[in-house]
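Final report, Chapter 2: Outcomes

The project's central promise was a pipeline that accepts a single protein chain and returns its three-dimensional structure in a standardized token representation, suitable for archiving and comparison. That pipeline is now operational. To close this chapter, we reproduce one record exactly as it appears in the project archive, with the input sequence first and the structure output second.
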Amino acid sequence: MKSQMIVVMLLAGLASSLWAQLEIRDASREPLENYTESSYWIGDEERPIYLSPEILMSSADVEDAYVSKQGDHYAVNLEFFDPAAQRFRQITAARIRQELVFLVDGKVFTVATVMNPLSKRAMIVGTLTRSEAEQLARTILNRPAASELSQ
């Protein structure tokens, strides 16, 4: 079966810690019961986002994270362990046209709208420099990550 990928546009800056935790949670643009208010940036505009208290996926679910070049910028490719990939497929299949939020070190890093069910792979792309993408990959893995770049 062909693996599917999600392209997540970066909507907020990198966390300052190299050894932070990745969390994926449900999110809403409208207030919901038990959700906490947070915010993220699009350009110069700060926008509210409401976060579920439940962590759906975390760094522990990521088998590998590596950097690749996407045009003039860099991306972080994620590969999930097999049991987590099955769970990610169930999560995304149940959330078509809904938001998921990616937090790094407890701060909103990116907000993504699920467009189709996903499983083994995801890609985080945006205006990252090589250094920022490598830092994010290390952060997600909580260990140094090898870059897979064709120069």
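Archive annotation: The first strand starts at residue 7 and ends at 9.
This record, like all others produced under the grant, will remain available to the consortium after the project formally closes.
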